[in-house]
Structure of ATP synthase subunit I:
Amino acid sequence: MPETKGIYIRQRKWLFFLMAFYALGWGFTSYQTVFLGLAFGTSLSLFNMWLLNRRIDRFGETIQKGETVRSLGMFSRMATAVVAVMIAMEYPDLLHFYSVILGLMTSYIVIMIDILFQSFKFLRK
């Protein structure tokens, strides 16, 4: 599974870049609740991506051993999203609700963009 590690590391770099951009936006603009919501949602999205990567590694090891596979942990990722939304609803003066939701989707957007870049790179070779 070394190729999945490389993919995860590449996408994690993009998410950290976005988090740095959000920190700058929070510090230098008047839209602090929006950028804090984006940063909060993206950090939980990064956590969900880490969980998924860890489960995929275990999934591959389990398949190689010939054992049955439980799940990839959809419930835990959904629970993280629910907790994020509950926190955003509890503190609307700190976190912009829609920004938290957009931040939760950020890792999936990064995954799709990364797939496009990699497919175009593959086509050029």
